[in-house]
Write a structure and sequence with these properties.
The complex is a heterodimer of chains A (564) and B (177). Chain A is of the alpha/beta class and 564 residues long. Chain A has 21 helices and 18 strands. Chain A folds into three domains: 161 residues, Rossmann fold, CATH 3.40.50; 159 residues, Rossmann fold (3-Layer(aba) Sandwich); 171 residues, Thiamin diphosphate (ThDP)-binding fold, Pyr/PP domains (Rossmann fold), CATH 3.40.50.970. Helix content of chain A is 37%, strand content 15%. In chain A, helix 6 links the parallel strand 5 and strand 6. The longest helix of chain A has 15 residues. Chain A is globular. With 177 residues, chain B is α+β, with helices and mostly antiparallel strands. Chain B starts with a strand and ends with a helix.
């Protein structure tokens, strides 16, 4: 069998049934073999979108996402997608073609040092030099991508290796002596953690992206212990946002309650997270009175930023139930009273005394779907509004680029999600800036008639940058204005064969959103919203999470006092 | 925050690109690699690299954990704080201007147990092994005569006894965490 056929056979054996990719010269043998393969290929219109779709496929399903690209520009176009997957710990296997072995290093046509370029943005990568290694390398790639802390793995395959005939054997052993993720938590550390939790009067559990695999365990742990729960942007859905013990999102645009809980708690359990700077704010002001229990599968995250008093390395699915066994229902009524008072005092609020605002549009989508859908977002203000007003209640259903903050993620992510969860509606919350970064994928959505509704909250500016310029750069609005040259998004959608709507006011929005969703057809809904809306609360960069600017979230009584 | 010099041994699989990944990690965290040596180890297919780097202790701990995460890295040992022996090899070419100089140079070389490996009318080449202090002292002694060229291999290091329970390499801590 040829190398290219072996690649597809090996993918089949890994249970792959869909691949996102774009062909080109150096990967043509693989595409030739694809012609006879049962694996479904989704032709994206830009390789970056292929990487994001594969990434989202994993996030939405838990199955490794696969992307194909050709050498040189095809492979370099993957880089943003790989970096996005790396930062958010998403299992992706990317397979790229390269020029024939003999031409590598000669600056051949469409040659780039893909192995060198992708090293820093992958969990591991391979350059295949012997066709006989292919079955083992592919097996290893899937193993590495999906175990321990997940991440992207790239396999670069020179064209002559793809064409070479060999006796393929797929019963190969992994050869990874340096790779042994710690899954089982250390009993002594779990005991220490339990002792610390039992002593605490004001404990809080903060769940990150690692929680997406352990939603059932988290639910049981919380029900058993009565502990309050904060979910980070990446942890949305790992614990239901509307549940009684939920305090919302922490950090720069977190809820008042979550940030106050962090500031005032005496014990913080960080579960499956890495204490990103957008979550912690200034580290010295982060949970200053707390004993920190940090549970993560990656030892390198422990005490990287926030010092862990009790580190536990392991998989949440192992650690949480064992920790729970050592705990009882915590008697923390005073703490809950305080938390509930904050919750009551600081509900989500925004002002409607102006044109349509992004928040109401996003809330209308939540109401229309009942939260029963997959949400993907682009990056910017709308992303934060979505995280706060449209957090889903199930794991693997809120897909957003958290770590890298990649504009252009949401639209192709919706494609990946639609293939990962067939039949489920997908809503992509976007801005007029970021939606244009992978807008070409409307063609892919059209071709496969995916049930994706793209909601553009169109304020005519790069909203988040504009917000920072207004607040921190003396209103010097430098290069954020888009409205004078935005396309007519409804017409653009129609040009791609999709339904398109331009929506200018509340009434129309309220009428159309349920109507369009009910059709189950791909559509672009372009909502013209208020330009100067800002995301509040906000912790300015470099400040502590206790130093929130409340803006619209200020309780009305306090605003009244101020104006006296 | 204290900046220390660290001698770090990294046992790696002999695979292309592994050195680039390790060097990249040091660079990304702002470590200056003072010296680096790579060669085959006692096991086939396994190489041992020894780095001398200067940086903050906390940061180095993070770098070690990140190194440990690399798939082709088998083991990371920071020798700092443990009992270890280290050596490097140097070749040094010195100019010989007068017969008196020749006598004096040879005398100094003898004190340092440096071997003469090449002799010309006006040039001598020495081979010296030892730790960093000895290297530096030898260079200083030769300076007045005129050093023409100097090549050093970079340090290699080994913990004194693996069985000694008092010897605590950083690896143990990384694993336990």
């Amino acid at each position: 069998m040829k190398g290219a056929e072996a690649i597809l056979k090996a993918l089949e054996r890994e249970g792959v049934n869909v691949v996102f990719g774009h062909p080109g010269g150096a990967i043509m043998p693989v595409y030739d073999a694809l012609y006879d393969s049962p694996i479904k290929h989704v032709l994206v219109r830009h390789e970056q979108a292929g990487a994001h779709a594969a990434d989202a496929y994993y996030r939405a399903s838990g199955k490794v996402g696969v992307a194909f690209a050709t050498s040189g520009p095809g492979a370099t176009n993957l880089v943003t997608g790989l970096a996005t997957a790396m930062m958010d710990s998403s299992a992706v296997v990317a397979i790229t073609g390269n020029v024939p072995l003999g031409l590598i290093g000669t600056d051949a046509f469409q040659e780039a040092d893909v192995y060198g370029i992708t090293g820093p943005v992958t969990k591991h990568n391979y350059l295949v030099k012997d066709v006989n290694d292919l079955p083992r390398i592919i097996k290893e790639a899937f193993h590495i991508a999906s175990t321990g802390r997940p991440g992207p793995v790239l396999i670069d395959v020179p064209k002559d290796i793809q064409q070479q005939e060999f006796d393929a054997s797929f019963d190969v052993e992994l050869d990874l002596p340096g790779y042994k993720p710690t899954v089982i938590g250390h009993a002594g550390q779990i005991k220490k953690a339990a002792e610390a939790i039992l002593q605490a009067k004001k404990p809080v559990l903060m769940v990150g992206g690692g929680g997406q695999v352990a939603a059932a365990e988290i639910m049981e742990f919380v029900e058993h212990s009565n502990i309050p729960v904060i979910t980070t942007l990446m942890g949305i859905g790992a614990y239901p946002a509307g549940a009684e013990n939920a305090l919302g999102m922490p950090g720069m645009h977190g809820t008042v309650t979550a940030n106050r809980a962090i500031t005032n708690c005496d014990l913080l359990i960080g579960a499956g997270l890495r204490f990103d700077d957008r979550v912690t704010g200034r580290i010295s002001r982060f949970a200053p009175n707390a004993t920190v229990v940090h549970i993560d599968i990656d030892p390198a995250e422990i005490s990287k930023l926030v010092k862990a008093h009790v580190p536990v390395v392991g998989d949440l699915r192992d650690v949480l139930p064992r920790l729970q066994d050592k705990l009882e229902h915590l008697e923390i009524d005073d703490w809950w009273q305080q938390l509930n008072a904050w919750k009551a005092q600081y509900p989500e609020r925004y002002k409607k005394d102006k044109p349509l605002v992004s928040q109401e549009v996003i809330e209308m989508f939540r109401e229309a779907t009942g939260g029963d859908c997959v949400v993907t977002t682009e990056v910017g203000q709308h992303q934060m509004f979505a995280a706060r007003l449209f957090p889903t209640s199930h794991p693997r259903t809120f897909l957003t680029s958290g770590g890298l903050g990649t504009m252009g993620f949401g639209l192709p992510a919706a494609i990946g999600a639609a293939f990962a969860r067939p039949g489920e509606p997908v809503v992509c919350i976007a801005g007029d800036g970021s939606v244009q970064m992978n807008i070409q994928e409307l063609a892919t959505i059209y071709k496969h008639q995916l049930p994706i509704v793209i909601a553009i909250t169109n304020n005519g500016v790069l909203g988040m940058v504009r917000q920072w310029q207004e607040m921190f750069h003396a209103k010097r609005y430098s290069e954020v204005y888009l409205a004078d040259s935005n396309p007519d998004f409804a017409k653009l959608a129609e040009a791609y064969g999709l339904d398109g709507y331009n929506i200018f006011d509340r009434k129309e929005a309220a009428r159309l959103i349920p109507e369009v969703l009910a059709k189950g057809k791909p559509a672009v809904m372009n909502f013209l919203v208020y330009e100067a809306e800002k995301v509040f609360p906000m912790v300015p960069a470099g400040a502590g999470v206790d130093q929130m600017l409340l803006g619209d979230q200020e309780p009305e009584e306090a605003v009244a006092e101020e104006s006296v | 925050m204290s900046i220390h010099k660290h001698v770090v041994s990294v046992t790696v699989r002999d695979r292309p690109g592994v050195l680039v990944r390790i060097a990249g990690l040091f660079a990304r965290r702002g470590f200056n690699i003072e010296s680096l040596s790579v060669a085959q180890s006692e096991a086939s297919g396994i190489s041992r690299t020894t780095f001398v780097v200067a940086g903050e202790d906390d940061t180095l701990e993070q770098v070690e954990k990140q190194l440990q995460k690399l798939v082709n890295v088998i083991k990371v040992v920071d020798h700092t704080g443990a009992a270890f022996v280290d050596r490097e090899l140097m070749l040094l070419k010195v100019s010989v201007n007068t017969p008196e100089d020749r006598v004096e140079i040879r005398q100094i070389a003898q004190d340092f147990r440096a071997r003469i490996v090449d002799v010309h009318r006006d040039v001598l080449i020495f081979e010296v092994t030892g730790d960093e202090g000895k290297m530096n002292a030898f260079i200083e002694s030769m300076q007045p005569f005129g050093i023409i060229e100097l090549v050093r291999t970079g340090r290699i290091a080994m913990t004194r006894s693996a069985a000694d329970p008092k010897v605590k390499s950083r690896t143990a801590k990384v694993r336990a965490a």
